[in-house]
Amino acid sequence: MVEGSFIDSGGHANNTIQIVEEVLDLDRAIGKALDFAAKDGQTLIVVASDHETGGMTINGGSFESGMVKGEFTTGGHTGVMTPIFAYGPGASEFGGIMENTDIHAKIYKLLFGEK
C-alpha cells in the first residue's frame, strides 16, 4: 500500500506545486508496482482516492516547461467523484461508479470469497 498523503494537504492549501509534486511521486510508485505486477501475474493493483480536495481545475500549462496552472474552488473537500483504476487479477471488480467504502469489501471477496 502506498499513499500520496500530501495531495490532500496541497488541496486544502490550494497549492498546485505541492499537488503536482506529490502526484508525480505517487505515479512513480504506481509505476514500480505495475512493473512488479506485470512480471508476477498474481498481484492486483488498485489506485483510488477517498475524496477530492480543493476543487482543482487545470486551466493551462506546458508539457515542455512542466508548468501547470491550477485554480481552486475551495480549501475543503468536494463532492466530485474520483476515479478508481485497477490492474491484475480481479481488476474487473473495480469498474464503474462505486462508493469508496466498497473497495474493502471487493478486496475481501477476492482474497477470501463471499462473506
Layout of SSEs?
Elements: H1 6-12, H2 16-40, E1 45-47, E2 52-53, E3 57-62, E4 67-71, E5 77-78, E6 85-87, H3 102-112
Antiparallel strand pairs: 1-6, 2-5, 3-4
Helix pairs in contact: 1-2
EC number: 3.1.3.1
Pfam families: Alk_phosphatase
Cofactor: Zn(2+); Mg(2+)
Account of the protein in words:
The protein has 115 residues and is of the alpha+beta class. The chain has one domain. It has helices spanning 6-12, 16-40, 102-112, and strands at residues 45-47, 52-53, 57-62, 67-71, 77-78, 85-87. The strands form 3 sheets. A two-stranded antiparallel sheet has the order 1-6. A hairpin with a 4-residue loop joins strand 3 and strand 4 (67-71). The mean pLDDT is 93.
Summed up, the domain count is: 1
Which strand order spans the largest sheet, edge to edge or round the barrel?
1-6
- Rg (CA only): 16 Å
Number of strands: 6
Please give the oligomerization state of what you see: single chain
Mean pLDDT: 93
Proportion in β-strands: 15-25%
Instruction: Report the span from N to C terminus.
Output: 23 Å
Number of helices: 3
H/E series, N to C? HHEEEEEEH
Largest sheet: 2 strands, antiparallel
Helix share, percent = 25-40%
* Overall 3D shape: globular
The helix-and-strand class reads alpha+beta
Low-confidence spans: none
Brief characterization of the structure:
The protein is of the alpha+beta class. The chain is built from three helices and six strands; from the N terminus they run H-H-E-E-E-E-E-E-H.
Core attributes:
37% helix, two-stranded antiparallel sheet, alpha+beta, Alkaline_phosphatase_core_sf, zinc, 6 strands, metal ion binding, 115 residues, Alkaline phosphatase 4, EC 3.1.3.1
